Amino acid sequence: MRWDSVRARGNGLGLFVRRVVEPVAPPVLLVHGLGVSSSVMQPFARRLLPELAAVTPDLPGHGQSDAPPDGYSPSDYATDLAELIGDLQLQAPVAYIGHSLGALVGLSLAELQPALVRWLVLLDPPLDPAQPNREVPEVYRLRKGQPGELERYLLERNPGGGELLAQTLAREFRQASDAAFESMLNAPTYTVRPLATRVLILQADPSRGGVLGDQAAATAAHTLGNATFVKINGATHALHASHPAEVATAIREFAARHSSEGVSSSR
Question: Tell me: domain 2-133+193-261, CATH 3.40.50.1370, correct?
Fold first, then answer.
């Protein structure tokens, strides 16, 4: 497995992109959640091979991408990624996997530019007003706190991840734009609308910090119209990290069912 990194354009912004270049496989946009970067998706990306080769950008205001003063709604990010697809010369429609905020961006992209999205996988999307992600305001506050406070909080929330992971995530959270956090904190719950795009919702376990309850998952799938949902029992909100094998299997099976709809190996 070999990665390459490039800078590409997204709605006039410079976006940093990591992508798998060996082995060659059909591309899939793999998009991170709030406050982190494409680097956190790299361990999971190898589980998608050999069927799918990840193209994973840093969203604006995150990682090594440009950080504009505003433009951090899901539709803003979707517009950025629409240009990115063209700039990278990815043959549309492109498969899409997004976690949390990245899932909302995928929904918005499929709504605004349906011809660009082959299918869509939503990893524990924040679509349930009854299940807010309580970590977001706390992380936002602790980013500007005393040295070590954020690291201790992250380690307490995920002791199995170890100190190195807590330190890595804290560094990424501090690097992310304040405006990106503030936009998410101040936004209403995303409104789901019917889509022609095929969608798989992978739901984390609300008892382990998942942000999508059972009824909200069923309602979202029904509203989307062309969607199914699968609950990963015991999974945390970052279910691709806590239960990567189960998540990857569900995605590969979903992709295989729709491979006859014109998946191309062109990169």
Answer: no
